[in-house]
Amino acid sequence: MDEVLGYVLGGSLQEGLTVRLQIPPQDIQEGAFVVMDAPGWRFFGVVTDVALRTTHPRYVENETPDLNPVLTRMLRRSTLYVTATVLPVRMMELPPDPNQDPEGYQRFLDEVHRGARDLPRPIPVKTIPPHFAPVRLADQGDVDEIFGKEKEGKTFVIGYTREQGHAVRLRLDEFIKRSAGVFGATGTGKSFLTRILLAGIMHHDVASVLLFDMHNEYAYDRQDPDRGVLIEGFKTHFPGRVRVVGLGPAATIQGRAPDYNLMIPSSEITPEDIELLTHELDLTDTAPVVLHALHQEFGSAWFERFRAMRPGAQEEYEDDNGRVRTRPAPDSVEAWAKEAGIHQGSAAALHRKLRRLFSKEYIVPHPPVNAVQQIIDDLLQGLHVVLSFGRYETDLDYLLVTNILTRKVREAWVQMTEEHRSRGEAGEPRPLVVVVEEAHKLLNRDMAVQTIFSTIAREMRKYYVTLLIVDQRPSQIYDEVMSQLGTRICGWLGDEDDIRAVLAGLANRDALRGMLARLEPREEALVMGWGVPLPIVVRTRRYDRRFWKDLMGEAGFGPGPGVDDINEVLFG
Amino acid sequence: MIGRLLRSTTTEFLVGCRLEDVQHLPFGALVKMPWWGALDRSGMVYGLVAWMHIPEGSMARQVAVQPITPGILQDQRATVEPVEVRVLVVGYESQGEISHLLPPHPPEPMAAMHLCEEDEVVAFTSAGRLGYLRHVLQAGGDIPVPELLAAHLRQARLAHEARGQRDWVHRAVQRVIHLLRDDPPRLFWTLDALSDALPQSFTLEEAVP
Ligand SMILES: Nc1ncnc2c1ncn2[C@@H]1O[C@H](COP(=O)(O)OP(=O)(O)O)[C@@H](O)[C@H]1O
Ligand SMILES: [Mg+2]
User: Fold this and answer.
1) N or C: which end of chain B has fewer CB within 10 A?
2) Count of structural domains within chain A
3) Between chains, do B188 and A64 touch, taking CB under 8 Å as contact?
């Protein structure tokens, strides 16, 4: 058992425990994961503050200058001390010690065997350890107890504790049950961490992944611009399980041809999809009326029909008096507007603004293959889809395509779930994780109410679809979406608003804020949220060759914990 | 024998000494005296020399302003009343066991006081957990406590160091700090006196807790 750091002196469940340290302050850090043993119970907590104390203020206010230096040192040693504030988070019942109370221990085991009681497991704290309970740093067994053990199956190392480098695991099957977020300022390692998480999800096969790869970084190998080493893509390691889809005809991604191309049938575009682009396209408030009228008249063909109209086209005709006059041509926007009772100027303006969309090569009336369906089928079969945007790098492309595709995919999942629920015939739908980088573009306050993404975030796991959002500006994400995120993994953030947003809805925000503000600028993250048992600072696992080697060697699934494991866990 | 008991209380006793014996009895020295009720056994009361009073000699006033001769000095020494020595009780011994509590009974008048040998000083001060320092720090009246402590620690330290026990004084200082830690002004004052009692070369042995 590890060295005792100190003893509980006082405190409360609400405000945290005061622990008098018997080690120097530099030997412990904020965010350290500690364990406190009390008779019958083990408590798990997090260091949230470290403080210098004195038995009396006079000992620091006026030092006597000419004391013998040895006396000065002895005086300091007994009147100055260090305390840490520890936030108790979890507690776990301890069975009787087999060495001290073998009978009690045997009785305990028998009860577990008979099913009369559960194996002890960490539960949220409801009380605190008593005065003078010894405090020590968590060892690997404690970390595993809280975050997951290797042999539990679907657990996966995402990083290491800061003090002692113990591996911190994530229970992947729990992780994907709720939407989650990866946050941090630019360059803190979000994309790398996302790679690590997704590699774990793919390797342990807990869900299908639909990844919107706006910057073409995830599919194929590429050079790391920061360090000049090769970053390996998912296609390299899961060639048979990952489908790389390129947006648009003849797309190439990192110089390679994707598995197939995505062309969007114009009939899939709804007026709401366009309204979402109000900001991007600079639409006016008359646009919805025009869109509605178009849809009313042409149904799903509205986009094609509108695209075909010629704005401002005139034709000549002879009036009753035989004079040649001009009027809007029958195929002009104006003629249609007149017919439909719509303000002609508004219709013309909308047509002009939609020109940016009309010219997109990936929107066609009849794509040669139904790639949208193909993507859905692939995902249903348990494959993972990386949609690379290729050269379509604007927000307009990103917003339109992610929204349409995600809507179609979710519809398939909703249908499947409902069939499963009502008739129980189809098997349980396979969980799906939709990954969006630059999530604030899709989930900002103006947009969130309308996008499919906020629907997914809010309905949680009802239809087996959850989000993994990756973003550097969490403050711009709609708070209602933020508060739905079960697991939040956050790298360093400088902006006060962003910090507040990431912590929204969590308990002990003050403590977490401090931990967040003092993360290393890179490759350190605070893992928190109601999806994880305990907030913890990790040095993130490195994403490199070694990572892939270790991952591929990691057992996929194992047996669940047995009664025999209890000894090992509790008594080392 | 260096004097006899005049009167006593539980915490202190007064001893009469001959003037010429006082030179063997430094301030702060550890002394002992059989305690009342144990005359025929081996019980001893221990105390520290805490205060001395040399009464005014009958001739002193007359000769104060005159030149004095060796003869006058001799006469004055022969006629002066006994020196009064106040001894602060710091513990006792009964049937070979040293206790740092106060004795069950004070010594009896006329009991003979002895100066403790170095071995006895070491035995008394290293018994138990230095509890006798409580009595020193609590001494009242006009006893100059910080000075008494300094004088005692200096003597006792030498005795301990002569036997290779260099950490004794550290433990003693630590104990003083502990006992006075809630009273910073007194503690500073006391440590100031202790600073003067310790040699410049005094160093910290890190092994000492
Ligand atoms: N886990 C990691 N393993 C290896 N390198 C990393 C890791 N995290 C960050 N890096 C380094 O930091 C750089 C920035 O990381 P990145 O994930 O692109 O940041 P972000 O997406 O937050 O802007 C990377 O190019 C890489 O060199
Ligand atoms: Mg990035």
Assistant:
1) C
2) 4
3) yes
- The closest ligand to the CA of A185 turns out to be 1
Distance A188 CA to ligand 1 centre (A): 6
Last residue of a domain, one of A325, A358, A391: A358
- B114 contacts chain A (CB < 8 A): no
Same domain? For A291 and A258 the reply is: no
Domain boundaries, chain B: 1-116, 118-209
The pTM for the full model equals 0.80
ipTM computed for the complex: 0.83
Co-location of A422 and A541 in the same domain: no
Residue A123 sits in which domain range?
4-138
Does A176 lie in the same domain as A303? no
Determine, yes or no, domain membership for A443: no
Are residues A43 and A75 both part of a single domain? yes
Question: Rounded to a whole number, what is the distance in Å from the CA of B38 to chain A's nearest CA?
Answer: 41
* Residue recorded with tokens 């129980």: A424
User: In 3D, which of A120, A119, A127 has the Cα closest to residue A38?
Assistant: A127
Cα distance between residue A172 and residue A177, in whole Å: 9
Name the amino acid, one letter, at A498. Answer: D
Pocket of ligand 1 contains residue A159 by CB under 6 Å: no
- Rounded to the nearest whole angstrom, what is the distance from the C-alpha of residue A542 to the centroid of ligand 1? 9
pLDDT tens, B144-183? 999 999 999 999 999 999 998 888 999 999 999 999 988 9
How distant is the alpha carbon of residue A183 from its chain centre?
Answer: 8
Task: Please list the ranges in chain A whose pLDDT falls under 50.
Answer: 1, 556-569, 571-572
Nearest chain A residue (CA) to B179: A78
Distance CA A443, CA A139 (A): 39
With respect to residue A94, please indicate whether it lies within any of the assigned structural domains.
yes
Ligand 2 centroid – CA A283 distance (Å): 30
Examine the domain organization and report whether A168 and A232 are in the same domain: no
| A466 within domain boundaries | no
Ligand 1, atom 11, lies closest to the CA of A189
| B191/A78 Cβ within 8 A | no
Q: From CA A8, how far away is CA A43, in angstroms rounded?
A: 12
The answer to whether residues A277 and A291 belong to one domain is: yes
Give the up-direction half-sphere exposure of residue B179: CA atoms within 13 A in the CB hemisphere.
18
Q: How many CB atoms lie within 10 A of CB A142?
A: 23
CA nearest to A80 within chain B: B181
Domain boundary among A323, A340, A358: A358
Q: What is the pLDDT of residues A475-512, one digit of tens each?
A: 999 888 888 898 999 999 989 999 999 998 888 888 88
Considering the domain delimited by B1-116, tell me its CATH architecture.
Beta Barrel (2.40)
Closest C-alpha to A72, from B103, B100, B191: B191
Condensed to tens digits (0 to 9), the pLDDT of residues B25-67 reads 999 999 999 876 655 556 899 999 999 998 887 777 777 777 7
Specify whether A131 is located in the same domain as A19. yes
Round to whole Å and give the CA distance between A203 and A209: 11
What does the longest C-alpha to C-alpha distance in chain B come to? 60
Our measurement of the distance from residue A213's CA atom to the centroid of its chain's CA atoms, rounded to an integer in Å, reads 15
Q: Are A447 and A276 in contact (CB under 8 A)?
A: yes
